Amino acid sequence: MLARRWLPRSFYARAALILILPIITLQLAVAVMFLQRHYEDVTVQMTRNMSREIALVRAEPELASRLDIEIVAPPAGMRLRPWDLSGRAMREELMDRFPDLVRVDTVSLRKTVQLGFEDGTGLRFDRGNVSAANPHQLLVLMVATALIMTAVSALFMRGQIRPIRRLARAAQAFGRGHVADYRPSGATEVRAAGTAFLEMRARIERHIEQRTLLLSGVSHDLRTPLTRMKLELSMMDVPEATALAEDVASMERIIDTFLEFSRENANDVRQATELGPLLRGAVDMAAPGRGIAVDGPEVTADVYPDGLSRAVANLVKNALRYGEEVRVGLQVAASALVISVEDDGPGIPETDREEAMRPFARLDSARSNTAGNVGLGLAIVRDVARAHGGTLRLGESGLGGLSAQIVLPR
């Protein structure tokens, strides 16, 4: 769990990490081996050779100039830089060979080593006599090579991940009701996933088209006999005619609901729309003369205006069917828009809310069967929300009834 928490989230970053980590590990291993071999072993070997010359000069000072060693005052103290690995190896080797060596200074004079002994004598010689020349070249070459290989790997991975991002954008657009232009590309596996997505999208589009045609056709064909029945009932003067007329009106409402469910956003175009006027128009259409206010800021969003207007109108009608007081609001967040419709009715139990949003679902509670109710109202609203890439949420209202929220991404 801890490893997952620290891993980057994007596929590109994880792939780059897979490529970069081996390079860094290899560079570190080579660097450690190089430092071990070059800074220590080579330095120790050169220091051993130099110690013979130092011992000779201490025994015969007149040979100092011929061996490029100067006899000077001893240094003030032991001075080595913390990162001077070869200097540490040199100091340890010299102190092993000269027990009376008390001071080693490689800092005071650049590229110079100064030694101080217990008898007060001091020696000075060139640092190159005990350290290999240009020891940093291999490290610089290794780092430069690593940077070049990392850049090449990053460019290669970017080209491999680009088709995956295009597929993700096409899938996201289709989930929000858009049909983005997409052609499979990239590696074989990515092409296979892209082809499967296109086939799935085509099947879903065919399914939606067949559902629309089926419901539209059946609902349209039923209108003619219903109209004939209404005409015949209007000419009948019997007590049963009134009840039959109410049944016919109820059937008409059911057919209108079928048509609305099948139509969804078929003839709608997504566009930038001011939500304030749209919501007020939907409320007036659903409850003319009721004076239901819409609370919320004025904001413009990219929506299907007709579909969203029908969805809000459905929620308002549903709220008025089961309650007396209705409240409509709009909230704007950084990443989402929330349109809420609340009522003071009986509400829906939490265990039944998911079932209530399914097509043709009917609950056994007070919010169930009324004349012409076929259980499509909330299903229509959820389909509209999904067409926008959002969702429909049901909860408890502050008024004591049901709170229905259409959540739309910004």
What descriptors fit this protein?
4-stranded antiparallel β-sheet, alpha+beta, Beta-Lactamase, 14% strand, Heat Shock Protein 90, 5-stranded mixed β-sheet, single chain, 410 residues
What's the layout of helices and strands?
Elements: H1 2-6, H2 11-59, E1 69-72, H3 85-97, E2 101-105, E3 112-117, E4 122-126, H4 137-175, H5 188-234, H6 239-263, E5 271-274, H7 275-286, E6 294-295, E7 300-303, H8 305-322, E8 326-332, E9 336-343, H9 353-356, H10 377-387, E10 391-396, E11 402-409
Parallel strand pairs: 6-8
Antiparallel strand pairs: 1-4, 2-3, 3-4, 5-7, 8-9, 9-11, 10-11
Helix pairs in contact: 2-3, 2-4, 4-5, 5-6, 7-8, 8-10
Q: How would you characterize this protein structure?
A:
The protein has 410 residues and is α+β, with helices and mostly antiparallel strands. Among the domains are: 2-135, Beta-Lactamase; 270-409, Histidine kinase-like ATPase, C-terminal domain (Heat Shock Protein 90), CATH 3.30.565. It contains 10 helices and 11 strands. The relative contact order is 0.07.
